[in-house]
Amino acid sequence: SDGTTAWTAQAAWGMPDFQGGLVTWKLDPWDAITSVAKLDGITGQAYPAYVLPDTTAGCQFWSYYQPGGPNIHPDGTIFLIEGCTVIGVDSLTGTKKFSVPLAGLDLASSTAQEGMGMIIGGDGYAYVAYSYRDVEWEDAGQREHVMVVRVNSSGVYDTIKVMEFLTTGPDDDFY
User: What is the pLDDT confidence band of residue 117, given thresholds at 50, 70 and 90?
Assistant: First the structure.
């Protein structure tokens, strides 16, 4: 309150956490999040970090980095995309609170498309929008699914199918 610096921290990436602190994260060379941790707003001390598993073991994404976070809920829950799931991390303990599947995505048979995004709405839910294509081909192309997952900070969720359509052909891409 007197204008002197209370603490400093070395953090490449960070976001306020609605509780007076800061959530920081580290990235690998491909801009995938490797860990997240909360810094106390008064002392600057780090709470235990959550370390994400190796990003090469997750779902395949058309972009070079795994999208979707972190997003910080006002209660301190950190939302992230991990593999083919949305996870919630307790910012004080660094432990995973829940894991919610992204319907239609699995490690072996689906590819998420560009444009996956996450936001925490004013109603307190995290919304994750994504699309995926089925692996099997049809004469007209592939079946494309556009989905939204709505999840609260305790892990209760709904999966909403927005639309479904056939691509124009097997070589149709989103570029």
Answer: confident
